[in-house]
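Lab channel / #folding
Pinned by the channel admin:
"Please post every new chain as: sequence first, then the structure tokens as a reply. Keep commentary short and put observations after the output so the thread stays searchable."

First post following the new format, from NK:
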Amino acid sequence: MEDNTMDVRIQAINFDATEKLIAFINKKAERLARHNTSISTIDVKLTVVKPETAMNKEAVIKVTVPQDEMVASKTADSFEEAVDLSLEALERQLEKHKNS
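Reply from TO:
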């Protein structure tokens, strides 16, 4: 079995991400990496866009694969939802990339 040394980097802008949120992101990132073993880095940037409003949690996720980079950005009510939506979009991009 090959050693998958994928790097997951999580950046929370102007707030402290909870352990639970970090664990959630890592778990989701690992699932994405299992589908695509060529992923070397997953960068996750979390931002509260407009405080005190709904739909204000933004996740920008950048996936690095050999010779390419893919980015998805989604805004939702919770960071978990924004991360989920971003990773779904990235899964589709990775599928297209694999089949091209």
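NK: The chain has one domain: 7-99.
TO: also worth noting, The domain at 7-99 is CATH 3.30.160.100 (Double Stranded RNA Binding Domain).
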